[in-house]
Amino acid sequence: MLIDAFETPQAVLGASNDQLRSVSGITATHVRRLRAAEAEADLPRLRALLDELDCHLVSIGDDRYPKLLREIDDPPALLYVRGGLEPRDELAVAIVGTRRRTDYGEMIARRLAADLVRRGFTIVSGLAMGLDADAHEAALEAGGRTIGVLACGIDVNYPSANAQLREGIAAQGAVLTELAPGTPPTRDRFPQRNRILSGLCVGTIVVEAPLKSGALITARLAVEQGREVFAVPGNVTSPTSRGCHDLLRHGAALVETAEDVVEGLGIMLEAVPEREPDQERQRKLADLPADQRAVLEALSHQPRHIDQVSDVAQMPTSQVSAALMLLEVKGLVKRFPGNQFVRT
Q1: pTM metric for this prediction
Q2: What is the pLDDT of residues 179-232, one digit of tens each?
Q3: I need a labelling partner for 101 at 20 to 30 A (CA). Which of 13, 69, 287, 326 fits?
Q4: Quick one: which of 62, 43, 71, 55 has its CA closest to 3?
Q5: Does residue 244 share a domain with residue 223?
């Protein structure tokens, strides 16, 4: 209520007691508790600590506050942030899963994260061991942005094995939490964290998760927030895939590739620009014969039927078909059912 009335925490703290009591629902008792908490907080010491940690505060009234997160039922009033939040982070997808992932789960998480950042997405996860770390690392390695959401204070080194990864995320994206410095990661704080994780994103992808899993809590929260939920199918005998299969039974979208995610979100791939191609891709493009180059230029990131490609390229269908087959072998084109093709 106070944030709604005064817009920022700073304005709340700067208001007089009479101004605070003028807000509907705020009593003298509330004001006394606020002043007591303010005195206990030792704000000058907190500011010094944040400067030392290279951390800044983003309040819900701040222009930098994530737009999607502000839309959930219980957005955090304040975020502690290392790194930076950018407008392009509105196009974010969460990738979550079990700490005890299989080699298959690791491969899929890394592939999805890398492919999605190349299409302009920011990857969000919980900076835990296992699949969370895989997704963050793949996003960084692909040159993209990633956001890590903590279930502890911004200064708490948890998990300690991810200390270097956390620094990389802060340098190339953001690490954030709603919890004050020094707050330890207790069991009840992870579900609380997960609402932020899903709230930052247009969709959540569960790669591998047992039936009782924090990743499934994140998926449930995403549904409650009106966001899309995706699940990766796995081995039917693997306990780590049972949670994903349960999500699929209850309406989650099946995901095999980044294109499945984009199509599920209803976002035109043409509106999601790819990043600069890597050196291997540049080499492939430079070596293309004229007919293959013409066919590739006739394609887009939306599926096009071979006849349409033939019309745009002004080439016979037989010649286009041969070129498409060679482009597919080179990994520059993907085939869809019904003789439809997209650029990869």
Answers
A1: 0.70
A2: 989 899 999 999 999 999 999 999 999 999 999 889 999 999 999 999 999 999
A3: 69
A4: 62
A5: yes
